[in-house]
Write a sequence for this structure.
């Protein structure tokens, strides 16, 4: 099994002409996974040997802008490079992250009228009270409205330490 990691951005929240916001791609046996997607990630992908359309999983570590503001734009760019042929069975892009990520994507894609040519599913990790004290949790409401047209139902993932 071969594996390689490409660092697309290692900078912090402060923009720099020499360091992109947080993003890296892990490639292993044909799979391409993106970890974080700060602003400028799609530009950094274009400068690399990687193809954004090969990304099948995205993992967002937390909901700070320097880790996720590039995600809606990246999804739209991948869509622009996809075939509009309905016969083509495009793979679903699985997106994993903290509670609130699904809402962020629905609102952003909805407000911009963005239509993707491929399905995606957001899977939110919801901490249990013993993993994250109540004072550390933001008061986010769960998104139960209609799915975005290309959105597939995702999961809410709760870690159970006793079953792990």
């Amino acid at each position: 099994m071969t594996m390689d990691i490409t660092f697309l951005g290692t900078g912090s929240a402060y923009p720099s002409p020499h360091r992109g916001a947080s993003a890296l791609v892990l490639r292993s046996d044909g799979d391409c996974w993106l970890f974080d997607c700060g602003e400028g990630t799609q530009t950094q992908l274009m400068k690399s040997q990687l193809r954004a359309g090969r990304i099948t999983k995205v993992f967002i570590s937390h909901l700070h802008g320097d880790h996720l503001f590039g995600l809606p734009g990246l999804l739209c760019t991948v869509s622009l490079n996809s075939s509009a042929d309905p016969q083509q069975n495009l793979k679903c892009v699985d997106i994993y992250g903290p509670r609130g990520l699904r809402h962020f994507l629905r609102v952003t894609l909805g407000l911009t009228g963005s239509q993707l040519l491929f399905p995606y599913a957001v899977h939110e990790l919801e901490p249990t009270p013993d993993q994250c004290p109540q004072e550390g949790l933001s008061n986010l409401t769960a998104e139960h409205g209609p799915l975005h047209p290309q959105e597939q139902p995702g999961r809410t993932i709760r870690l159970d330490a006793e079953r792990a």
In short: Helices lie at 41-47, 65-68, 71-80, 101-111. The first strand starts at residue 3 and ends at 9. The chain has one domain: 3-158.
